[in-house]
Specification:
- The structure holds two protein chains of two kinds.
- By secondary structure, chain A is mainly β.
- Chain A contains no helices and twelve strands.
- Chain B is globular, with a radius of gyration of 13 Å.
- The chains are: A mainly beta, B mainly beta.
């Protein structure tokens, strides 16, 4: 079985500051990794995904994430955040050969002016 | 370019009533997943369906909950005899394949409130 740990439930930052949202996973088999964003009262939108190959993955809205197999991590980063990035961010894992995604509990990114 | 359509967006039920949540997947998607979101708990997998088949229901409560995805029409998540603890946001997602590499496309959810 897979599990995902998002280490921070809330991350407050100022506008234009860099941010890192942390995600660690556990799995006994190879995995695919995803980051989703949820704006208030909306569904989840895919930000980026790691399937294989380059460990640095670029996504939408200027976000990127780095897969680190030895540390079983997939942290999400953005060099300069905007007020509009305020949302909840979910890390998810899927084991190779399985269809379902397992989600972390989410990290609320709060960007203030 | 309709995405995943869920209705209703908000549903209020009294304890003991039945709740029916509908999900129409994206065009061309034949794989449907239901998740439940409780405050500060993230999304919990409930059930995975393909047309006319339940593939994985390991996350479904054993009683009162059922799901279907008929040959024609939307997928339905049914909750019988609702209780206060069923209050949550229920999200449907669809995918064109059983390969997780595609990721999911999510609907906007149905927020169920049991009073």
């Amino acid at each position: 079985a897979q599990s995902v740990t998002q280490l921070d439930s809330q991350v407050p930052v100022f506008e234009e500051a860099p941010v890192e949202l942390r995600c660690n996973y556990s799995s006994s088999v190879s995995v695919y990794l995803f980051w989703y964003v949820q704006y208030p009262n909306q569904g989840l939108q895919l930000l980026l995904k790691y399937l294989s190959g380059s460990t640095l993955v670029k996504g939408i809205n200027g976000f990127e994430a780095e897969f680190n197999k030895s540390q079983t991590s997939f942290h999400l980063r953005k060099p300069s955040v905007h007020i509009s990035d305020t949302a909840e961010y979910f890390c998810a894992v899927s084991a190779a050969g399985y269809s379902t995604l397992t989600f972390g509990k989410g990290t609320m990114l709060l960007v203030s002016p | 370019n309709a995405g995943v359509m869920q209705n209703p967006r908000h549903l209020v039920r009294r304890r003991g009533q039945e709740a029916r949540l509908r999900c129409s997947p994206m065009k061309g998607h034949s794989h449907v997943y239901w998740y439940r979101q409780l405050p500060e708990e993230g999304l919990k997998f409930m059930v995975y369906l393909q047309k006319e088949n339940i593939i994985d229901e390991s996350g479904m409560p054993k009683e009162r909950f059922s799901a279907e995805f008929p040959k024609e029409g939307p997928s339905i998540l049914r909750i019988q005899q609702v209780v206060r603890g069923d209050s949550a946001a229920y999200f449907c997602a669809s995918s064109p394949s059983d390969t997780p590499s595609y990721g999911y496309t999510f609907g906007s959810g149905t927020r169920l409130t049991v009073v």
